[in-house]
Design a protein that fits this description.
This is Aspartate--tRNA(Asp/Asn) ligase. With 591 residues, the protein is of the alpha+beta class. Helix content is 29%, strand content 24%.
């Protein structure tokens, strides 16, 4: 007999009745029924009920067992009485009578319970993550993650991609976040960086002639944490292809992602039509570049109805350059109570409030109600209603000013309205490609900088870079799903002269570009093919499939909100010997 087990805790069925078996696992729960001890024995695969009565030679040892002790038992499989069969368990038809028991690993008093659904502070869960991971929900999440990665790999291989591994220690490059720097012992005063993404290396692979690359790649970014983003490292499906246009990338990655969501989505609807929405339209219609299309609400520009109107606040706003009034339709939201609640929401978000109109039945016809309707008059109000396609029982909310000042709140309001009015479908994955991103933006000091990936090809090539930088669009694209960004990618800028010009507009001279991206610039001088690709966030994909709101629920050993590993006590202070070897000195924190 094997030293630890003949079967897993999910394997025994009625076919094994009468067999002598050996099981190993953790004591999940102990119950005393009239002097007979019942133990739910758990391993990674499932649960088996084992029991011991006072007549057994092992009874005294079984009495000493406690929750989460790791044990091995030998026993005989017996059939449960028909009325005691548990159809929820694969092993629910049988139980094992214990003949002997050995404690493989005793447990101290537990800081958190594995059995049950008790809630614990996240700090406790992360400090004792090895216990937290024993819980059924966490085992399911991590198994799902592993299965998703396996499925992605197979789907990429099926499309004739090969997986290649790129370096982890590399040079610093601007990818939109802070680098994690690694001091060099052999080159004092110089630093490597952990890669924010394999961006440059995968482009170099295309120059090297490999044509189709993918990798389940670790990426490292020193970022501020939030619910859908890890503050230190994450994994992505990284892919790149040669001799492709934007649509080729879409046609390649859609069956991979759609297939994964169909395979692991638990029966939820997975959209097969993925619309292309320009960045400009996404901002107008949804207030975000990662819209949730399960919500049917589309915002609209209704500025023309307020120009010169009796509502002085909006009328005067529209006299300023770059301002507009947007409406958020709210089908079925036509009650003063709901409108007041949404107005209070806007105030909590830092705005003075939201204007509103709602339409109600007055017996002899439809009436528009609310302060805006009174101020702008019946004709303008009716024109707004017709533009928005609303009727009796519906409402509309209005925000005005420069879009960058209210767009974020408008987007959040759209989400809240959709959820509160039951308009948002919950059992669906809705995808959309967001395209035509602007290449450049102005920073807080008015300087031109890249707004997205700096290695993207501008639409129109060199000619496009001769005009206003803020009008330049890139061959850049994101895939949004249910309000999250799942994929980001681009057709790459593979021509050195266009690259130099693109970086020049962002304030980087040719010497600086050669210094920071010398390997790639040099490679592009030796017959670089047109190429493009994208990267999909593995953690975020699994988070959606697992129906979790927090990305740490699908990462084995995540950092906390302060980018600390409470279990391993990281970050930690280096020893003086380590600092001397690296010729570094640590300055005290600023007071």
């Amino acid at each position: 007999m094997h030293a630890y087990r003949t079967h897993t805790c999910a394997a025994l069925t009625s076919d094994n009745v009468g067999d002598t078996v050996r099981l190993s696992g953790w004591v999940h729960r102990i119950r005393d029924h009239g002097g007979i001890l019942f133990i739910d024995l758990r391993d990674h695969y499932g649960m088996t009920q084992v029991l011991c009565d006072p007549d057994s030679a092992a009874f005294a040892d079984v009495e000493k067992l406690r929750s989460e002790w790791c044990i091995r038992i030998d026993g005989e499989v017996k059939a449960r009485a028909p009325e005691l069969v548990n159809p929820k368990l694969p092993t629910g038809e049988i139980e094992v009578f214990v003949r002997s028991v050995e404690v493989l690993g005793a447990s101290k008093e537990l800081p958190l319970q594995v059995f049950g659904d008790q809630e614990y502070p996240e700090e406790t869960r992360l400090k004792y993550r090895y216990l937290d991971l024993r819980r059924e929900a966490m085992q399911a999440n991590m198994t799902l993650r592993s299965d998703v990665v396996r499925s992605i790999r197979q789907r990429m291989w099926d499309q004739k991609f090969r997986e290649y591994q790129t370096p982890i220690i590399t040079a610093s490059s601007p990818e939109g976040a802070r680098d994690f720097l690694v001091p060099s012992r052999l080159h004092p005063g110089k630093f490597y960086a952990l890669p924010q993404a394999p961006q440059q290396f995968k482009q170099l692979l295309m120059v090297s002639g490999f044509d189709k690359y993918f990798q389940i790649a670790p990426c490292f970014r020193d970022e501020d944490p939030r619910a859908d983003r890890s503050p230190t490292d994450f994994y992505q499906l990284d892919m790149e292809m040669s001799f492709v246009e934007q649509q080729d990338v879409f046609d390649t990655i859609q069956p991979v992602m759609q297939g994964v969501f169909e395979e692991f989505g638990g029966g939820r609807k997975v959209d097969s039509e993925w619309p292309l929405i320009s960045y400009k339209d996404a901002a107008l219609w949804y207030g975000t570049d990662k819209p949730d299309l399960r919500n049917p609400i589309k915002m609209q520009d209704v500025s023309e109805h307020f120009k010169g109107s009796g509502f002085a606040i909006f009328a005067k706003l529209l006299e300023q350059e770059g301002t507009q009034i947007r409406a958020i339709p709210a089908p079925t939201g036509g009650s003063r109570k709901f409108c007041d609640r949404m107005n209070a929401f806007a105030q909590k978000e830092g705005l003075p409030g939201m204007g509103y109109i709602f339409w109600r039945d007055q017996g002899n016809g439809m009436e528009a109600a609310g302060p805006l309707a009174k101020n702008i008059g019946a004709e303008r109000t009716e024109a707004i209603r017709q533009q928005l396609g609303l009727g009796v029982g519906d409402a509309a909310f209005f925000l005005g000013g420069k879009p960058e000042a209210f767009e974020r709140v408008a987007g959040k309001a759209r989400v809240v309205i959709g959820e509160e009015l039951g308009l948002t479908e919950t059992d669906r994955f809705a995808f959309a490609w967001i395209v035509d991103f602007p290449m450049y933006e102005k920073d807080d000091e008015g300087r031109i900088d890249f707004s997205h990936n700096p290695f993207s090809m501008p639409q129109g090539g060199m000619e496009a870079l001769s005009g206003d930088p803020l009008e330049v669009l890139g061959y850049q694209y994101d895939l949004a799903c249910n309000g999250y960004e799942l994929i980001s990618g681009a057709i790459r800028n593979h021509k050195p002269e266009i690259m130099f010009k693109a970086f020049e507009l962002a304030g980087y001279g040719e010497d600086e570009v050669r210094k920071r991206f010398g390997g790639m610039v040099n490679a592009f001088q030796y017959g670089a093919p047109p190429h493009g690709g994208c990267a999909a966030g593995i953690d975020r994909v699994v988070m959606l499939l697992a129906d979790e709101a927090n990305i740490r629920e699908v990462i084995l050993f995540p950092m906390n909100q302060r980018a600390e590993d409470l279990m391993m006590d990281a970050p930690s202070e280096p020893s003086n010997e380590q600092l001397r070897e690296l010729r570094l000195r640590v300055l005290p924190p600023e007071s």
